[in-house]
Amino acid sequence: MDSSLIYGVSYFSGGLPLLLGIFSIKSTSPWAGPYLKEEYKDLDNLETLTRQMEKDVAMYGFLNLIFFPLIFLYQILYSFFTLSELIKRRPDALGMRRYSNYGRYRVRHFNELTHELNARLNRSHVYANAYLNQFYSTLTEVFAKNIAFVAGAIAGVLAILSAWDEDVLQIEHVLTVISVCGVIMVICHGLISDENLVWQPEVLLAHVTSELHYVPVEWKGQAHTEQVRREFEQFFQLKWMFLLQELSSPILTPFILLFWVRPNCRELVRFFYDNT
């Protein structure tokens, strides 16, 4: 059971590892230090352990529901201030990519230190970005170019008029229009492919996987396909997708715990018994 895949869609927000960490130190945790508890090695105890784990998961799910308004408010404020600072430094930040929590979880080696994982991911970042840039929609690019042209023309005319006569800036919403046009241009430029782009998905994905040390069989020789692109995009997501996941986590996490993790507690307990 992959706890980060729900109906084939990767969802692994920052709050889920925290909850799992809290759960791991509960009395029903399967671990006693680095070792599996003795009761998990006894087949007769599995039913009791399953019921206890279901109770704990249900408790966390209901607690998340009860405190949902406070958690959601905190998440909104935190995301807003983080996003404001990020956009101030990099206006095109939302169009950039990062490795998702799900991707980090899948490619991390057993007992690998965080800084070592980050080093591997950072070395692959350029190639991962270049690989996904190989795929673009011609129709989207045409629309993006035209919209960017119109937005640039409006912003340019207003900027020239403002330089000619600073009273233009006193007109209502002029600064807002210039700012919005600038944002639109940044977004549109992110949708336009590099004119010097060379089609070599196999080479780029090979560079990526050499650092990730993760190569599913179905990826081999299929780097040019949409299926592989979609699968890899779950590992290397746009930053706005990451922020959307974090914002939605207070809403979705209680339901994941109650309606997805809890019904699978028996499988979790059985996994510990069978594999440790």
TrEMBL record:
GO terms for biological process: autophagy of mitochondrion; lipid transport; piecemeal microautophagy of the nucleus; protein localization to phagophore assembly site; reticulophagy. One of its GO terms (cellular component) is phagophore assembly site membrane. It is found in: Preautophagosomal structure membrane. The keyword Chloroplast does not apply. The chain crosses the membrane at residues 6-25, 57-81, 142-161, 173-192, 240-261. Keywords: Autophagy, Lipid transport, Membrane, Transmembrane, Transmembrane helix, Transport. InterPro entries: Autophagy-rel_prot_9. The keyword Transport applies. It is a multi-pass membrane protein. Phospholipid scramblase involved in autophagy. Cycles between the preautophagosomal structure/phagophore assembly site (PAS) and the cytoplasmic vesicle pool and supplies membrane for the growing autophagosome. Lipid scramblase activity plays a key role in preautophagosomal structure/phagophore assembly by distributing the phospholipids that arrive through ATG2 from the cytoplasmic to the luminal leaflet of the bilayer, thereby driving autophagosomal membrane expansion. Belongs to the ATG9 family. This is Autophagy-related protein 9.
